[in-house]
Design a protein that fits this description.
The complex is a heterodimer of chains A (232) and B (275). Chain A has 232 residues and is mostly helical. Chain A has a domain of 89 residues. The radius of gyration of chain A is 27 Å and the shape is extended. The chains are: A mainly alpha (232), B alpha/beta (275).
Chain lengths: 232, 275
């Protein structure tokens, strides 16, 4: 029963949603509309579930002093702090349990949650993503080596796109006459993006699309059961 | 002199840091050319009549704001210039704050624009594509209130906007899933609403196939370069324009690193064969 019920519901819901795409009339449109509402409610609960899971996982690592447990403690404290500040005084124009905290706002210039969001979360998050530039530069030096025909082609394409996607490309070949504009770096980069790239991307997209159809059918028909958890 | 991999890496990091920091501190002012994809997105907004209601969805978080935030600000400014009414939504939780920050910045130059009349932030809603599908049927059902708890029916801007079909265009600034693709699949493919948007430079190649004859996407802003192109089109000296110098220098430096890496391997091979 524990695994049969989800399989049964997945089949019924899957078939209804599939049919509604081909028969967009009553009663299918009403049923699908209701199902969409259910989906949003369940998704909301999934966020709550994620938070509970985050607390459990981090607490486990801290209590058992597993590797790098200090980072998990920092994560948990940050989570608790933002949650508490948001609940107590709200964010932006939305008041919290204790109202809008005019005293704190006068001191910080904004609500505590917004202050931490703007001055801690935002720069930290952007910094982490920016670190990619350093890794890419280092990887380019170590790994982007010409070894054969394929890597040669890749290198030439990469150089054209890199130059073409910057202001330098515009400067380097901006002087070319009208009849040679195809060889202008930005135009060459656009050509690569528009034709070879799009052709390859379409092939990938079509394959992925077929794969999604296949795996969706497997889920609807109960062949694919990994979403139920367990080993099967 | 032979340097260890660790030292080499540190030198690369240091040189890159200096190369990126200098143009940010002392802008060079290099110009960029406007690509067809950016022009298409610009034309969509430019050619939409005044007074039309539009949606800009902030589907990203602060990690990608360097590339996407300038696009959001430029698109809001462009829509304000054309007197269009803006609804902002977010399929990512942090998108709400991103939208508010973009409005705060643009409103300094447009102090006469009023919340609820010229623009509204409907906030974040969980559910991704299903949320957009539900908006296609009834927007009020999905967003009963805006971020300031004003009920949908009391917001003047939304008086004649009941469903997705009532908006003139949708723009999704997207750094992943859910985002631009979901908007395109529902708003464009199911409801025939023109969809444009922006994404990070690394994900742009995956979206180019959708800028096709069927206009699944009406133009695309791919990365910081496109953001700076858009800024130049609307005559705004924004953050993308100033950051573009740093990005150009960084790209040039990466090319130099690639060349140096290859020279190093070539010399090592030659030495080995001589031995």
């Amino acid at each position: 029963m524990k695994s049969t019920a989800p399989l049964f519901f997945a089949f019924i819901v899957g078939v209804i949603v599939l049919l509604s795409e081909f028969i967009p009339h009553s009663p299918f449109n009403q049923i699908v509309s209701t199902l969409e509402g259910w989906f949003m409610i369940i998704s909301g609960f999934a966020i709550l579930l994620g938070q509970i899971s985050l607390i459990r996982m981090n607490t486990h690592k801290i209590v058992h002093k597993l590797d790098n447990w200090q980072y998990h403690l920092a994560g948990l404290i940050s989570f608790g702090l933002m949650l508490t500040l948001g609940l107590l005084w709200g964010m932006q124009e939305t008041p919290g349990i204790l109202g809008d905290a005019p005293g704190i706002q006068a001191w910080l210039g904004q609500k505590p949650f917004d202050y931490l969001f703007d001055n801690a979360y935002l720069p930290l998050s952007a910094t982490l993503f920016s670190l990619l530039a350093f890794f890419i530069a280092s990887a380019a030096y170590r790994a982007f080596i010409i070894r054969g025909l394929e890597s040669n082609l890749l290198m030439i394409t990469a150089i054209i796109v890199i130059i073409g996607r910057t202001s330098i490309g515009t400067m380097l070949t901006g002087w070319l006459p009208e009849n040679l504009q195809f060889w202008h770096f930005p135009n060459l980069a656009d050509f690569i993006m528009e034709f070879p790239n799009t052709a390859a991307q379409r092939a990938i997209l079509i394959s992925a699309g077929l794969g999604i159809v296949g795996s969706s059918l497997r889920i609807i028909l109960g062949i694919e059961r990994s979403y139920l958890g367990g080993d099967k | 002199m032979k340097l260890s991999a660790m030292v080499e890496r540190r030198i690369i990091y240091l040189v890159l840091l200096v190369a990126v920091a200098l143009p940010l501190l002392f802008p060079i002012g290099w110009k960029t050319e406007v690509s067809g994809y950016t022009q298409m997105a610009y034309d969509l907004i430019e050619n939409t009549p005044e007074g039309k209601v539009v949606i800009i969805s902030f589907d990203y978080d602060p990690s990608t704001m360097t590339e996407l935030q300038p696009m959001g600000e430029a698109m809001i400014e462009h829509a304000f210039k054309r007197d269009q009414k803006i609804i902002t939504t977010a399929l990512w939780p942090m998108g709400v704050q991103m939208a508010e920050q973009a409005f705060d910045k643009v409103l300094r130059d447009y102090p006469d624009k009023k919340r609820g009349v010229d623009y509204v932030n409907l906030g974040y809603k969980v559910g991704g594509m299903v949320t957009i599908q539900a908006m296609g049927r009834d927007m009020k059902e999905v967003y009963p209130k805006d971020t300031r708890n004003t009920p949908y029916e009391e917001i003047p801007l939304l008086a004649n906007t009941r469903r997705l079909k009532d908006v003139a265009w949708v723009s999704s600034l997207s750094s992943g899933v859910p985002g631009l693709k979901e908007w395109m699949m529902v708003a464009r493919d199911s409801y025939n609403v023109p969809v444009t948007g922006g994404c990070t430079a690394v994900s742009a190649p995956g979206f180019f196939p959708y800028v096709n004859e069927q206009r699944q996407l009406t133009g695309l802003l791919g990365g910081l370069k496109a953001a700076s192109e858009y800024e130049s089109l609307i005559g705004r000296l924004g953050t993308a324009t100033t950051k573009m110098d740093a990005q150009s220098v960084a790209h040039l430096l990466i090319l130099i690193f690639i060349a140096l890496g290859n020279i190093k391997v070539f010399v090592a091979k030659r030495r080995k064969s001589n031995d």
